[in-house]
Amino acid sequence: MHQELEPDYPILTPRLALRPHRTDDLDDLLEFHGDPEVVRFLPWPLRDRAATNAALTAKLDQATLTEPGQWLVLAVELRETKTVIGEILLKWASAEHRQGELGFVLARAHQGKGYAAEAAAAMLRLGFEDLGLHRITAVCVEGNISSARLLRRLGFSQEARLVDDIWFKGGWATRLLFALTEDAWRTPATTGRDREEIDALIRCYFDAFTSGSGVDERMAALRDAMLPGAIIVRTCGMAPAVYDVDAFIEPRQAMLTDGTLTDFKEEARSGRLDLFGDIAQWFGRYAKQGRMNGAPHTGGGMKSIQFVRTDAGWRISAAAWDDDRPQR
After folding, report:
1. Which of 13, 88, 116, 282 sits between 20 and 30 A of 213, alpha carbons compared?
2. The pLDDT of residue 285 is above 60
3. Assessment of whether the complete model's pTM goes beyond 0.85
């Protein structure tokens, strides 16, 4: 078990940098410390510039954990713009019982884009791997639907509903208690609903490459199933070819409708789906068969399809494939 936590900063994720607060963060922090829509679910009051500055001063010394009872409080910086869009917190609650607590807040303009999940996933890794925690909890006011949803996506389970257990913002509030153990974090469970939705996207992907009536409709469904900026990569023993959504779909749609490919279909044969929070990946074998320019055409290989959760549900964010090599 680890006795303290002194991370190497910044902690980088695909879009974020988690780092100690600095005095020049004040304007960015005021953006959400002074927003009543953000503060209404937080334990601290609405803050003006002076109060935000006082809070910032306290955070400047909260970049390491040296003993139980301390909070690690980090700025969540958007790497592209260097803007602080939120804060992520980890409490070292107990050394003997290896307990911790997670907290987070994000500016309203940056909510709903997966940033909180991205930052929280990095902080959970710090807690479980670097600090050696066994269990991390999180609490939120019952009306804070978005935070409760995020915690569930991260793998937390709701363990209790604490009715009227705190005096909060002028009235009694009910809080929800969530927890995640190290074992559950290392082997995150997929929910039935998530698996069903992702399985439907996998079917949509392969069904699109079927000749005959309905090609245009199936390709339109595949386009809707992909993020607008999705990237698709083909290797197949050649130099990698990288496609955007249009460059991938349009020539294949043409081949399936102009007679180049007939009696043709692709299908998934086997694969593994891994899911954590708002990201997932399927890796598996596929097969294809039919006729190309009138001649029999068969083959297969392996495909990797990546998914992200959006406000509209799961979507394909990337795909790559490599075909089997001819037998010599």
Report:
1. 282
2. yes
3. no
